[in-house]
């Protein structure tokens, strides 16, 4: 059973047309992450939420924003997609508490194409 | 911050052979080291992990070893099968008290039948 669900699985957008990717989780994890993964590369962290606290990576473009309206849902907004933003976008969750090891659970990803 | 190097980038073996993937990390404070397997077009999934208070962990055909002094850890797969073909990522967590993993660049393992 999918525990981290991403929608849609495939998204095609036009250059400059805003797009929103969604992620939901049934694990009640307190941390949610958004990664960008390009072909044959490691996932690149864009930002993450620790509970309601938003944490942006220093090199994440301003074009990327995120919302977490509640524990279960997190959204990735790309305001003006460029050709270079075409990639797989992975959502992940984890429970971070004290010394508990941080196991991340990934969604199946949304593959974004920009025309 | 933490830096994780992973080698090799590509590994090709015959079915039944063993495969070894190695990672080094830079921060001795890192204390948790997961390995993820990502099949083509699918999500990364945790296959094995190790904490810094353990030197070796085994799960059937998969094992991970950790050398804290040398700051390196390795994934060992024995009796490889074609379904082991995937990209494998190592990661290190705990540097500076951070829970955010630093990933290696990945190793593409190809198991030839």
Oligomeric state of the chains in view? heterodimer
Tell me the Rg of chain B in angstroms. Answer: 13 Å
Globular, elongated, flat, extended or rod-shaped: what is the shape of chain A?
A: globular
In sequence order, what are the helices and strands of chain B, one letter per element? Answer: EEEEEEEEEEE
Task: Give a brief rundown of this model.
The complex is a heterodimer of chains A (115) and B (113). Chain A is built from no helices and 11 strands.
Structural account:
- The complex is a heterodimer of chains A (about 120) and B (about 110).
- Chain A is built from no helices and eleven strands.
- Chain A is mostly beta strands.
- In chain A, strands 2, 4, 5, 6, 9, 10 and 11 form a seven-stranded mixed beta sheet that branches. A four-stranded antiparallel beta sheet of chain A has the order 1-3-8-7, with no helix packed on it.
- In chain A, a hairpin with a 2-residue loop joins strand 5 (about 45-50) and strand 6.
- Chain B is an all-beta fold.
- Chain B contains no helices and eleven strands.
- In chain B, the strands form two sheets. In chain B, strands 2, 4, 5, 9, 10 and 11 form a six-stranded mixed beta sheet that branches. A five-stranded antiparallel beta sheet of chain B has the order 1-3-8-7-6, with no helix packed on it.
- The termini of chain B are far apart.
- The interface of A and B includes residues 4, 40 and 105 of A.
């Amino acid at each position: 059973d999918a525990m981290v669900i991403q929608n849609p699985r495939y998204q095609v957008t036009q250059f400059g047309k805003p797009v929103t990717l969604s992620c939901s989780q049934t694990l009640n994890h307190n941390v949610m992450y958004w990664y960008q993964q390009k072909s044959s590369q490691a996932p690149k962290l864009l930002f993450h939420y620790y509970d309601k606290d938003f944490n942006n990576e220093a090199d994440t473009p301003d074009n990327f924003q995120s919302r977490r309206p509640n524990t279960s849902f997190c959204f990735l907004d790309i305001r003006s997609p460029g050709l270079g933003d075409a990639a797989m976008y992975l959502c992940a969750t984890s429970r971070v508490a004290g010394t508990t090891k941080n196991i991340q659970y990934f969604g199946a990803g949304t593959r974004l194409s920009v025309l | 911050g933490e830096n994780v190097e992973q080698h090799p980038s590509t590994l090709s073996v015959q079915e039944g052979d063993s495969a070894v993937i190695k990672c080094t990390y830079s921060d001795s404070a890192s204390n948790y080291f997961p390995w993820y397997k990502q099949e083509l077009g699918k999500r990364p999934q945790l296959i094995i992990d190790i904490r810094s208070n353990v030197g070796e962990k085994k799960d059937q055909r998969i094992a991970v070893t950790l050398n804290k002094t040398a700051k390196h850890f390795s994934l060992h797969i024995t009796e490889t099968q074609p379904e082991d073909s995937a990209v494998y990522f190592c990661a290190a967590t705990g540097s500076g008290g951070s829970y955010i993993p630093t990933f290696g660049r990945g190793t593409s393992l190809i198991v030839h039948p």
